[in-house]
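Entry 12.
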Amino acid sequence: MVDGFLSPSVHAATHPNLAAVVLGGSGETTTYAQLEERSRRFANALRARGVGVGDHIAILLENNCAFLEVAWAAQRAGLHYTAVNSHLLAAEVEYILSDSGAKALVSSPAMSHILNALDLRGIPVRVSTGCSLAGFEPYQDLLAEASDAPVEDEQEGREMLYSSGTTGQPKGVLKPLPGTRFGDPSAPPVQIAIGQAARGVGNGKVVLSPAPLYHSAPLLAAMAAHRLGATVVV
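Predicted 3D structure (tokens):
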């Protein structure tokens, strides 16, 4: 924490080589320095494509390191972001994309069985974190071309997650954006992290997240752990 602020940026400055994310199985690792740089770059890439404060992006991914990089880009850029359950039917996914008003979709070839059944013409920004995917820009190319400076209007974003839709259409919970600087302790996402700190999560600790990141608890707990300097094993 610096001057009361809690964000991964603090730990990227003080412990750049500390693992922020470790992918179970493969052992692929993202350090805090890499998380900081990649989330800044992707936030700037979204800005360059017209995605501004208050806009919405959707994340349809398997558990991987890029998932949390993208989520942090949205969090620091003042965006609403929806992690989409990859076990939903294509019609349910398409409903969520439309209902949320997503301007960008981040996905991967692992989701091709869903993507092939979707009409994505209404989503202007489409990004693939894996190998080539027709109609999608490669994530690594976007990172390479974008600035790694903080976005000029950096501020806290907010997740907008949906129910499973077992009683009808999936229902989204639209929470107001904090409107605060990134890491400001008055922001609800930061207060979640403060609560986790009270339970012993902190710098040098290891947090195991064995569930899909599209669920609210794993996603928010992992991001809270990053504000506190812990390593998240996904």
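Annotation: Strands lie at 19-22, 29-31, 56-59, 80-83, 104-107, 125-128, 137-138, 158-159, 206-208, 231-233. The first helix runs from residue 8 to 14.
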